[in-house]
From TrEMBL:
Belongs to the TfdA dioxygenase family. SUPFAM superfamilies: Clavaminate synthase-like (SSF51197). It comes from Serpula lacrymans var. lacrymans (strain S7.3). The keyword Oxidoreductase applies. Keywords: Dioxygenase, Iron, Metal-binding, Oxidoreductase. InterPro entries: AtsK-like, TauD-like_sf, TauD/TfdA-like. One of its GO terms (cellular component) is cytoplasm. The keyword RNA-binding does not apply. It comes from the Eukaryota. This is TauD/TfdA-like domain-containing protein. Residues 71-342 form the TauD/TfdA-like domain. GO terms for molecular function: 2-oxoglutarate-dependent dioxygenase activity; metal ion binding.
Length: 351
């Protein structure tokens, strides 16, 4: 007989408590240890009005680009390293500028931030400026704070082993976070708590430049198409492992090319993680087109960057116009611990 929910809860809680892993030190930030409660349930997400903070921003970004700020672009199309400014100290106007800056540069790497030490309430308050924060239906969250999505790997908990097993020779998994939601994320925060000495970078690709590189005729064919994005596989994988499914998995159709509400840029909006098929196409047609688009995104290496981590790094990116992938190039003998806050934005605008 299958174990009851209370038995499963007990097992999961035991896993939660087993944080002191074999041969490994305690996590530096135990508050953010991944928490799974099988009894935690969320109602379906309700639609809300979204006005992107970036639309209110001063284009010159005087609160971020001060005389003390140093910036270094990582590539032509996306990615800027920023130092000399604290996200935690930004005013509402500064946060509006952050939304605009993230939309323009796609990915911002803020160095030497105090963000990880300002406490969960303040972290949530800052992220909420950009939209209601998604409460993840399956991932580890923080006890009492379901807004946090915890990324954690150590000797006992190995996401790559759990997710891919030994069946794949390639662990790169390009995706845009939670694209199955009706209102998908915009400005997104990821802060590192503990990291391996080397490896564990995040790859990002510009979906704007991926779109720009297509021919006018091909762009015409893509515009107007819609694709189905699904949370079902994620929910099934969690259930199979005895993990939580806090909300009924949703499936949503989104435009295949979307337009950014602040910059007006057009971007491809498909990703291997959650896009399942092109609406109205027969199976083979859909598979053929999606395979081309995924290859196009993955093989254009000059529209990619690697986000590297240092203690105090906070990555702020725009999930509407990028895809990203974790990298598994580090030994799980070293702990990697990070947290994402994922504000949801507008219903995708068709190009
Ligand atoms: Fe992600």
């Amino acid at each position: 007989m299958a174990p009851s929910v209370s038995e499963l809860t007990a097992q999961v809680q035991e896993v939660n408590l087993k944080s002191s892993t074999k041969g490994q030190s305690e996590p530096l930030y135990p508050l953010y240890y991944p928490h799974f409660d099988l009894n935690e349930k969320f109602p379906p997400t309700q639609l809300f009005d979204h006005v992107d903070p970036g639309t209110r921003a001063d284009r010159a970004k005087p609160h971020i680009l001060t005389p003390e700020t140093k910036v270094r672009n990582l590539s032509t199309y996306l990615g800027t390293e920023v130092s000399g400014v604290q996200i935690s100290q930004l005013s509402k106007e500064g946060l509006d500028e952050l939304a605009l800056y993230a939309a323009e540069r796609k990915v911002l790497l803020f160095r030497n931030q105090d963000f990880k030490d300002i406490g969960p309430e303040k972290q949530i308050e800052i992220a909420r400026h950009f939209g209601p924060i998604q409460r993840h239906p399956t991932s580890g969250n923080v006890k009492g704070y379901p807004e946090f999505h915890v990324v954690y790997r150590d000797t006992e908990h190995d996401r790559f082993r759990d997710h891919f097993g030994n069946s794949r020779s390639n662990l790169i998994d390009w995706h845009s976070d939670i694209s199955y939601e009706k209102q998908t994320p915009g400005t997104t925060f990821f802060f590192i708590l503990e990291q391996p000495e080397i490896g564990g970078d995040t790859l990002f690709a510009s979906q704007v430049e991926a779109y720009n590189r297509l021919s006018p005729e091909f762009k015409k064919r893509l515009e107007g198409l819609r694709a189905l994005h699904s949370a079902v596989r994620q929910a099934d994988e969690s259930a199979k492992k005895g993990g939580p499914v806090r909300r009924e998995p949703v499936e949503t159709e989104h435009p295949l090319v979307r337009q950014h509400p602040v910059t007006g840029e057009k971007a491809l909006y498909v990703n291997q993680g959650f896009t399942r098929r092109i609406v109205g196409f027969k199976n083979e047609e859909s598979e053929y087109l999606l395979k081309f688009l995924y290859d196009h995104i993955a093989k254009n290496a000059d529209i990619h960057i690697r986000a590297t981590y240092e203690p105090g790094t906070v990555v702020v990116w725009d999930n509407r116009v990028t895809v990203h992938s974790a990298t598994g190039d580090f030994s799980n003998v070293q702990r990697r611990h990070a947290v994402r806050l994922t504000p949801q934005a507008e219903v995708p605008i068709p190009a």
